Amino acid sequence: MMSVVSSQPFIKPMQPTPSISPGMQRRHTLPASEVRPLNTQDAICVFEIEREAFISVSGECPLHLDEVRHFLTLCPELSMGWIEEGRLVAFIIGSLWDKDRLTEDALTLHKPRGSTVHIHILAVHRTFRQQGKGPILMWRYLQYLRCLPNVRRAVLMCEDFLIPFYLKSGFKVLGRCAITVANMTFTEMLFPISGHAYMRRNSEAIRFPQHPLTLPLAKTDEHVDV
């Protein structure tokens, strides 16, 4: 069973520096931007974003609503949501797997003793696409996984047009995935997780930056809706 105690410093609010005087700010108690694990109360929002993002492209959702609830119940620590002023704008859902390659069972099972994180889905709300949130959230998620001492790799399956996006995030192509959905085929990709000893030793000193993390996007990223 994995321990997530040392990973907690990675789930911290992103607090941007106000660009206006404190007296002119909107009065509310919600942080402007934060990243946190998801829970079952987020399931409907997650599914609505997922359905809009995937049905229009492929006609299939990676996870149905009951499956979203299933994974957010069994392994919420392997999810990550980007919240802006109380609104979910992007998310990742993962689970543990215990084999070298994905099989049909990986779509629905969580293997607590596994050392592979199966990333089921990364999705961004349509209003917030083309802003680089997909690459940023994936980067933060992969850094977070480095704090989980039993995790050795992350894998996912994607359609071919998404391969360049995941290559830029550091994934490598493993080959054709054994899983098919309807008439759709997928490529399986791998991200090796390393640096665990260093991360555990320094976990108490690790904090997210106080300013929103931004990454320069190549022009080709503009065509990826994440």
TrEMBL record:
<keyword id="KW-0808">Transferase</keyword>
<dbReference type="InterPro" id="IPR016181">
    <property type="entry name" value="Acyl_CoA_acyltransferase"/>
</dbReference>
<protein>
    <recommendedName>
        <fullName>Serotonin N-acetyltransferase</fullName>
        <ecNumber>2.3.1.87</ecNumber>
    </recommendedName>
</protein>
<dbReference type="GO" id="GO:0030187">
    <property type="term" value="P:melatonin biosynthetic process"/>
</dbReference>
<keyword id="KW-0963">Cytoplasm</keyword>
<keyword id="KW-0597">Phosphoprotein</keyword>
<dbReference type="GO" id="GO:0004059">
    <property type="term" value="F:aralkylamine N-acetyltransferase activity"/>
</dbReference>
<dbReference type="Pfam" id="PF00583">
    <property type="entry name" value="Acetyltransf_1"/>
</dbReference>
<keyword id="KW-0471">Melatonin biosynthesis</keyword>
<dbReference type="InterPro" id="IPR051635">
    <property type="entry name" value="SNAT-like"/>
</dbReference>
<comment type="pathway">
    <text>Aromatic compound metabolism; melatonin biosynthesis; melatonin from serotonin: step 1/2.</text>
</comment>
<comment type="similarity">
    <text>Belongs to the acetyltransferase family. AANAT subfamily.</text>
</comment>
<feature type="domain" description="N-acetyltransferase">
    <location>
        <begin position="33"/>
        <end position="194"/>
    </location>
</feature>
<keyword id="KW-0012">Acyltransferase</keyword>
<dbReference type="GO" id="GO:0005737">
    <property type="term" value="C:cytoplasm"/>
</dbReference>
<feature type="region of interest" description="Disordered">
    <location>
        <begin position="1"/>
        <end position="25"/>
    </location>
</feature>
<dbReference type="InterPro" id="IPR000182">
    <property type="entry name" value="GNAT_dom"/>
</dbReference>
<keyword id="KW-0090">Biological rhythms</keyword>
<dbReference type="GO" id="GO:0007623">
    <property type="term" value="P:circadian rhythm"/>
</dbReference>
<dbReference type="GO" id="GO:0009416">
    <property type="term" value="P:response to light stimulus"/>
</dbReference>
